[in-house]
Structure formats: structure tokens, C-alpha cells
Amino acid sequence: MRHRLSGRKLGRPTAQRMLMLRGMVTDLLRHESIRTTEAKAREVRPLAEKIITRGKHGTLHQRRQAAAFLTDDDVLRKVFDELAERYENRPGGYTRLTKLGPRKGDAAPMAVIELMP
Questions:
Q1: What does the similarity note say (predicted)?
Q2: What percent of the chain has pLDDT over 70?
């Protein structure tokens, strides 16, 4: 039974999957847009939104928790300085997921996940 289980395994062991998602969230926050498969984009979305919400709170505890998740200090500063300011009046929904269609090589459904302006 799969009661109360959430998330996709994405064909990877747990440690590899979490490191991949951490890297994708960091890249999304750095570049503000990434092109990936639809399944990965759906997994990245809630993680990125939680990091931005931590940035909005702005406390030292929230900064340390975000630093433990993100893989780059420059991105951490961007979240707490620029993005927190940009989204201070928005109660959530900081990302947009746009479907692109199948990838040419293996027909995997592709998507762009980007930060809202």
C-alpha cells in the first residue's frame, strides 16, 4: 500500500535524487528558468517555493536552513535579498510550469519551470 507517500523516485536512489533536486532548485533560483522533464519540474516546484518562502521570513534560522539545502552561497544571498523583496506581497505561487511537448531523442515530456516576474 502507498498510503501518504508522495513524490517521484525518478529512477534514482534517494541520495542521488535529493542531490539532483537540490542542484536543480539552486539552478532555477540562479537562472530563474530551467528546461527539464515534466516529472522533474513537478518535483522541483514545491522545493523552490519553500526556499523562497524561507527568504521572505528572513530570520537567521531560515537562512541557515536554506543554506543547508542550496549548493551556492551567491544564490542564497539572491534569495534573501532580491527574491524576498520581489515576492514580499505574493502569498505563494512563485513559479510557473509551461509544458513544451516531447523531447526529440526519447519522447520524454519536457517543460520549462521559471520564476514569475
A1: Belongs to the bacterial ribosomal protein bL17 family.
A2: 100
Domain locations in the chain as residue ranges:
14-115
Residue-level pLDDT at 106 = 97
Tell me the three cell numbers of residue 38: 515534466
Query: Is the pTM of the predicted complex or chain greater than 0.85?
Result: yes
Rounded Cα–Cα distance for residues 40 and 85 (Å): 27
Separation of alpha carbons 4 and 29, rounded Å: 29
Find the mean pLDDT for residues 26-45: 98
Mean pLDDT within 60-64: 98
Positive or negative torsion for Cα 45, 46, 51, 57: positive
Give every CB contact of residue 67 below 8 A, 6+ residues apart in sequence. 73, 76
Q: What topology does CATH give the domain 14-115? A: 50s Ribosomal Protein L17; Chain: A, (3.90.1030)
First-last CA distance in the chain: 41
